Amino acid sequence: MQVQSPVLTQHVQVSIVFTDAGRCDLTSRASLWGLGGVVAEKRVNNDCVADLGRVPEGTYHLSVTGQSFSRLDTDSVRIESSAAEHLEVKVRRTDSLQETNGVRSASLVEVTNLGIPVRARREFDKGVEFMTRHNWQKAIEKLNRAIAIYPGYSGAYNNLGVVYGQLGERDQETSALESAIRLNDHFAPAYVNLARVNITADHFPEAERLLNQASNCDPRDATTLVLLSYVEFKDGHFEDVIATARRAHALPQPHAFVHWMAARALAPKSNRRDELTTELRLFLQEEPSGARADEARHELAVLDNSTR
Questions:
Q1: Number of structural domains in the chain
Q2: CB atoms within 10 A of CB 134
Q3: CB 31 within 8 A of CB 38
Q4: Which residues pair with residue 139 across a beta bridge?
Q5: Is residue 4 part of a domain?
């Protein structure tokens, strides 16, 4: 009889600290990526800490995202089982994003808020204030008041979804985000938020549909393309993964992970070794160290030897 060795694990927490010492962006998430994709992902809690739970020993890649700052990716992170691991990531808010509106694009907020009654806007702002204080029930109360005054308030529904997500109330989170999209079908952040719900539930086809819609609304958002490449791979849509990597590479700040996913999609295709080599080299330019980088170099060496 075979006896399986126990998997050594580590409790991992990630603190997100803003360099301007301002209030936490409660839409912030921390994601830990392994060779096979996302290992753990959580929104921050009341203390701006994302509790990722117990994670197997190994080398990972950490990324943090939020609606008030650009995506930040760390170098490789080694998780050991000897003691609890608490990681701290410092981020700088992006001036062009409006933290208090719960949406990603300043221009989108301006268009969305046209015609919103002053009373509804005041209740919305109070809801955001309670979110920053981590008073979720009061935030729900104020956001619902904003919606009662102005039923077409898609931004309020989006923020309501964020609050319900903090409380772990998935059905209500989903319902609120679906309402935000129904009211504004060009509201990219709500599509991304809803896609994350589906990723957590392993509903990858629906997540892929939502992320494609988000990308159509905001084609220059690299975070959307990173998530899209992952769900396309999980759905077995390998040609789409490759196309998504090329789209991401055309952005000012392409993300290494999309090239890694493209390489995984190309690896079984023996007649496309040149493309595989290109994706591996692009990946190494953006992520030169860590376990994935070591594997990429090994793959390149094997490819090089096979062509001699």
A1: 3
A2: 18
A3: yes
A4: none
A5: no
